[in-house]
Amino acid sequence: MALRKKRIPRYGTVQVNGHKYYRTDVEDAEGKRVILYGKTREELYDKEMAALEKVDNITFRQKSPTVAEYCEKWLLMQSVHIRNTTLTDYTSKVRRHIIKELGQKRMAEVTLDDIQVALVPVSKKSVSVYKSVIILYKSIFRAAQESHVIDTNPTIYLNAKGGGIPQEDKQALTDEQAERLLDAIQGLPPYVFVMIGLYAGLRREEILALQWDSVYLDTEAPYLTVRRAWHTEHNRPIILTELKTKAAERNIPLPDRLADCLREAKKKSTSEYVIANRDGEPLSYTQFKRLWQYIVTRTAKPRVYYRYENGKRVKHTVNPVLGEKAAHNGKVIYSLDFDVTPHQLRHTYITNLIHSSVDPKTVQYLAGHESSKITMDIYAKVKYNKPDELAGVLTDAFAQWDEAEYGTAQ
C-alpha cells in the first residue's frame, strides 16, 4: 500500500451559509469523484487521507487472489521441499476443507469468523484431522502475510483446542475373534488382505501397494519389504514409491501361515500386485470399500439399506441374527458379532508382538513407527493395562517394604 507524506496541500474554498469551508475531491474505488469539506485545512487533510486509505484497502482486496488460487499456489510451493505422500495429504485436506468452504472469497477479505464457520464440518472429524486442518490454515495465511498478499492474518487467534471427535482406544482382536474372521472370509477377496494385516502388520496403504517383487517366498526365511504406498485421487489409485517416513521402509519376516497363504495367492495371481482388481490394477477407493463389504455383510449388527419400490426410495432395516443366513443371499452367514476395521488388523499384530515379549525397539521397527513415543504409548497400554497380572508384581514389591518396616519395628 502506498505511503503518503504528511504535507498539507493547498485547497480551494467555498462559502456555505456565510461560512468558509475548505474543499477538495478524491476518486473512489469505482472511479467516481467524491467532494470533501473541512472547516480547516488540517481537518480536510485528515478526511482526505482517510478516504484515500479506504480506497487503497478496497483496491487491495479486489486485487487479492481468491483462497482457491492462493491455496493452489501454496501447494505448488510446498511440493519443492516435502515428500510426495505429505503433499498428497496436504492437497486432499486443503481442497476438501479449505478450498471447498472458502475458495471463492478473496484472501484479503477472509475473517476469523469465516474460518471458524468453515471449520464446523471439520469439527465432526477426528481430533487429528481437525488439528492438521488448523495447522494448514495457519501456514497458508502466514505465508500470504509474509508475501504481502494480505495485510493482516485472520488465523493468529485460531487454535485447535476442543475441536474434533476423540477416537476411542483401539482394541485388538482376540485370538478367537481373529480365527472367526478368517473362517468367515476363507476363499473370499479380502482374505489375503486380512492375513497380511494380521500377520505382517502393514497399513492399509502399504498392503494395497504391495507388489510381488517385494515378497520373497523362496528364501530360507521368507519376508516382504515395504517400499510403496497406495493413495487415491478422485477415486483413482496412485502408487507412490516414496513413503511418508523413512521408518516406513522396512523388511517384515513372514510367519509360516502367511508365507503359505501368499504362495497360494501367487499361484493364482495374474497381476504384479498382491491385491488387485479384475484388470490386474491396484484397487480404487470404491473397489476397496467393496472388498471390505464382504466382512461388513457377515457382521451381525443392525443395518439400513434403501431400495426403489414403485419408483420410490424405501428405507429398510436389517437385524441380523448370529449364525443365520442372509435373507437375500444364502451364501452369506452372519458369523461375526464384533466390528472390524482395516487398522484393527495392524493393531492386533502390534499387540501380539508385545504379548510375545518382543522388545519395544523391535516392535517400533516392525510397525514402521518413526517416533518411539507412538510405540511406547501402545506398549504401555497393552503391556501394563492388566490389573490381575500387575497385582502379583506389586504384592512382591510391597512385601519387601513391609518386611523391612516390620523387621525394624521388632
3D structure, described in words:
This protein is α+β, with helices and mostly antiparallel strands and 410 residues long. Helices cover 46% and strands 15% of the residues. The protein folds into 5 domains: 10-61; 65-145, DNA polymerase, domain 1 (Orthogonal Bundle), CATH 1.10.150; 174-295, Intergrase catalytic core (hpI Integrase, Chain A), CATH 1.10.443.10; 299-334, no CATH class; 341-384. The protein has helices at residues 41-63, 67-78, 84-102, 112-118, 127-146, 175-184, 191-200, 204-207, 256-268, 285-296, 342-355, 360-367, 372-384, 387-409, and strands at 12-16, 19-27, 33-38, 215-216, 223-226, 229-233, 236-240, 250-253, 303-309, 312-318, 325-326, 329-333. A 3-stranded antiparallel beta sheet has the order 1-2-3, with helices on one face. Strands 4-5-8 form a 3-stranded antiparallel beta sheet, with no helix packed on it. Strands 6-7 form a two-stranded antiparallel sheet. The chain is elongated, with a radius of gyration of 32 Å. It starts with 11 loop residues before the first strand and ends with a helix.
Summarize the structure.
This protein has 410 residues and is an alpha+beta fold. The protein has 14 helices and 12 strands. It has 5 domains: 10-61; 65-145, DNA polymerase, domain 1 (Orthogonal Bundle), CATH 1.10.150.130; 174-295, hpI Integrase, Chain A, CATH 1.10.443.10; 299-334, no CATH class; 341-384.
